[in-house]
Design brief:
Largest sheet: none
Order of helices and strands: HH
Strand content: under 5%
Number of helices: 2
Distance between the termini: 12 Å
Radius of gyration: 18 Å
Number of strands: 0
Structural class: mainly alpha
Length: 82
């Protein structure tokens, strides 16, 4: 994640797919559970929406919080942020 001219994220997070996660796959879990146990069929759509919302929120906040924490730790160590 680049902010301005600096790249505060660690090198492990750079590049395409560096910040990816499997969270998007979890949106299918409520439906899969409902298929396995029909007693959950009524709540599967609501659960899917909740999971999808959490995926979006974490997709936005995780890189921001990671960059913030990286800068904070670098500042505490006295090392210049990349």
């Amino acid at each position: 994640m680049k902010i301005g001219r600096r790249n505060p994220a660690p090198a492990a997070l750079d590049g395409p797919g560096g910040c990816s996660s499997t969270a998007g796959n979890s949106a299918a879990v409520p439906r899969a559970i409902a298929l396995a146990d029909p007693s959950y069929a009524a709540i599967a759509p609501i659960a899917t929406v909740q999971v999808a919302a959490s995926v979006i929120v974490t997709a936005v906040l995780t890189p921001i919080l990671t960059a913030w924490m990286f800068r904070k730790v670098q500042k505490e160590r006295g090392a210049p942020a990349k």
